[in-house]
Amino acid sequence: MTVKLGRAVQLDDLDRNILRALQADAGQSLDEIARQVGSSKTPVWNRIRKMRDAGVMGPSTVVVDPETIGLDACFFVLIRTSEHEAEWQQLFLAALRARPEVQEAHRLAGEIDYILKVRVANARAYDVFYQALISEVRVFNVTALLSMEEIKSSTALPL
């Protein structure tokens, strides 16, 4: 588990503009990014390299439309557990990381211990996921909420 504490990197306006351009389309050319931010290629490339080295940016990826590949159902899964030992947590986290259906997993404060975002083809596929998860690790209560409509989805952070 990665925990980042107080590691904010100082960014100026040019850095933020570069990040906005990359968040919009990381596949665009360096020339296009430089044009958008009002700079030349070399300073933009140097800024990008420094931000990567500082851990501001992770790997470049492609965002795939889930429905076009048959993953029509999005479930938010609320998990409560009565287990809080390190061994249980390691087993649970390993089970989540091994399941490609889990797009996001968060440990929460409050009555619910974890929330998962699970993307599958349909309710039957969710049940297969659910049965596999509870066979691997004991949980106290699981509530699955089917998203009826995705209103907003973005990976871009406000800069």
UniProtKB/TrEMBL annotation:
Keyword field: DNA-binding, Transcription, Transcription regulation
GO CC annotations on file: cytosol
GO MF annotations in UniProt: sequence-specific DNA binding
Gene Ontology process terms (BP): regulation of DNA-templated transcription; response to amino acid
SUPFAM superfamilies reported for this sequence: Dimeric alpha+beta barrel, Winged helix' DNA-binding domain
All residue ranges annotated as the HTH asnC-type domain in the record: 11-72
Domain of life: Bacteria
One matching Pfam family: HTH_AsnC-type
Listed Gene3D superfamilies: 3.30.70.920, Winged helix-like DNA-binding domain superfamily/Winged helix DNA-binding domain (1.10.10.10)
Name assigned to this protein: Transcriptional regulator, AsnC family
Organism: Jannaschia faecimaris
